[in-house]
Design goal:
With 145 residues, the chain is mainly α. The chain is built from five helices and two strands.
Length: 145
Amino acid sequence: MLLGAATDFLDGYLARRLHQVTDFGKIIDPLADKIAVGGAIAMLVMIGAVQFWYVALVIVRDVLILMGGLYIKSKKNIITQSNWPGKIAVFFVTLVMVLSVLNLAALEGLTRVVIWTSVVLMGASFVIYVQRLFIGGARTKKGHS
């Protein structure tokens, strides 16, 4: 999980640094992140390492963001980019997964703090996506067909 998060961060960093950001990458990278995180966290709920409400929140938020992104693309030909609270939220969700796998009693308090921090960050990033959908435009770039 940590290696996946690190390589995802490195990939995005290099794409921006080398000016190789593409519309395809803006679509496929967050989609791959959502599938990987959603699948991994769903497995953790199956083994009882994470509570169902948390997994449901992560998945519902991601599905809503995906649907909103598809709507904006189809109606306005705009591809929305990830936002920083969302990227940081994914880091915290990954941290929740790591702490849940470790399942150490000494880390219970930390795990709770990380869970609620990720919930707040997911909420903040979701509000930003909703603003883009209904208010429009903030940090979006026209896609090329």
